[in-house]
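User: Predict the full complex structure for these chains.
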Amino acid sequence: MSANRLWRLLLAPGAVWLLVLFVAPFGIVVAVSLGTQDFIGRVHFGWNFENYQSILDPLYYPILLRSAIYAVETTGLCLLIGYPVAYTISRFGGRYRNLLVILIILPWFADYLVRIYAWFVILGDDGVVNGLLHFVGLPGNPPVIFLNRPFAVVGGLVYDYLPFMILPIYAALDRMNPALIEAGKDLYGSPAQTFLHVTWPATIQGVIAGAVLVGLPSVGDFATAQILGGTQTFMIGNLIQDQFTGAGDWPSGAVLTIGLMALLSVMMIFYLRSTSRPADLMS
Amino acid sequence: MATDRWNSEINRRDFLRAGAALGIGGSALWLAAACGASSPTPVANANASPTPLHYPTAKIDGDLNLFNWSQYMDPGVIDRFAKHYGIKVNTPYFDNMEDMLTKLNAGVSYDLTFPTMDYALNLIKAGALLPIDHTQLANWSQVPQYFNNPWYDPMATYSVPYAIWTTGIMWRSNQVQGMTASWNDFWLQAPTYHDKMFLLNDYQEVLGMSLLRKGFDINSGVQSQLDTAVNEVLKISTGLRGFETDDITNMVNGTAWIHHAWSGDAYQVISQVNDPQNIQYETCKEGVPTGNDTMVIPKNAQHPGTALKFIDWMLDPANATSNVAYFGYPQVTTAGITAYQNTIAKQYPFLNMTLDAAINGLREIVPTGDKRYLWIQEWRKIIYS
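Assistant: Here is the predicted structure of the two-chain assembly.
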């Protein structure tokens, strides 16, 4: 029994961190969502449940839809790019596997905003890519406008969250018994069939984990859209941020925050339930 | 197996227990926050003058937290202050007035901040500022006569003026032709140059400009007029490159060719580009938003004495002159205005402005109450489209 107590004690720092930095601020957000503002915008707490009616404002729906679409596009692109990378590293990496994994994580040594601003330099009107296009003779000044378009926002999100897709898939591939693939070949399966019927189902846990780790933050992201986006790329994260900084109101922002959390929690619960049972079957 | 034991130990009963504990703890915290904060300091009656609080004395009482727009004060002047008094100056930034107000309302402690005159008026009404004793400022005589009793701050109890500005349009004359000194220029140039055009991310400026173009009052609270103004902006806003209060960076790096801009920022662009002769700025015939902003000490400043010393430092003629050369606005002191007239206004006549025009010109007044709610709803129609 003493080993069990030790485990519980080791959970304590994490629980305290969660309590102080998540549960308590969340409680304050709930309190603000039920409050009102005075003439210069200071929040006075109360029990104004009618604030929650603002969540039904049809003005929000196109923005929520856009955020969902960007998140799905980001997840899809991350999967398309990330799976082959993870597969190559785990199957053909050999001695250099760890080095390659480190190279993938390396950009995260730089600050989040620095990584977004790097795209300014690359995709700007006078940036690297446009300079190259101009050099090969493409007309236009600039040849292509990348920034302040949906392309730049989704691209920025993909770039930022790609490691979150590669690493879980890599871990899943690593855990898979390579003999399974040989068995597939022995049973006269073509490479495509082997992949579809053996490799893919064996790594589905990693794919789902990656999809959740990429999809959920992408929905709520605001910094990428704010810096790389334009007037047509307003996401739900920018909406909530606007309520707290631009000409907005705090109770509305708090209501939207709770609404978004409720929506994402539903998806999280789905993820948790879908992973709990297959884990028993796969080990 | 060890894994079985691990799995079975953190079982459903324990999880529910932990969850309940977290839930009760969280609710307790929430109630504490709600009850504890539901009795704020009473908001001063808008009609009565607020009872002045303790006047801070001008002495160094710690490092300075200077809360300002970015690129709105000469870093050299700040560094010299820090060295002279042997302290550190922290410079957090805000993007616009609403951003500043949000952080102040959240209770973040700043020693000195820079609201525009209409925001200063509201902060004074709300009792959110410390009073300023002019006898503590050695350079107070530098402040022009009018500002001893400005319209927004009777007897200048809470504020010291900082700079005057105009709002207009900045553009690159080597790329864009046919500007007509009118707010309509945005609509005129939009079909060709919408990809290189920015408006200010400021609801007062954008809605105000559109109202002026239609001949309405810049601070109109009439819903039909605001609807018209919003619909006009929507005609061009979907194709715009963006809404941005940083009107310097995009003009300098070539992303913007036309920018809704403040006068001093035009000067900063001129000083940073390789081809200053191509940067032009115009004020518009339908109306020129103008005015001054102020330096104030928020009520929860931790080092108000240092803040007062810094205000005095900025009023010093040599520092004001140096500051004007950096940020391109006439700082509202005798020396600052003279410096501006002799240097920037002479070299760039389109940047000329007088103190009289700023005092008596078109004022943007930030809406409060129901009008504020209306303006916010209208602004959202533009940016949420």
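Residues 2-33 of chain A form the longest helix (32 residues).
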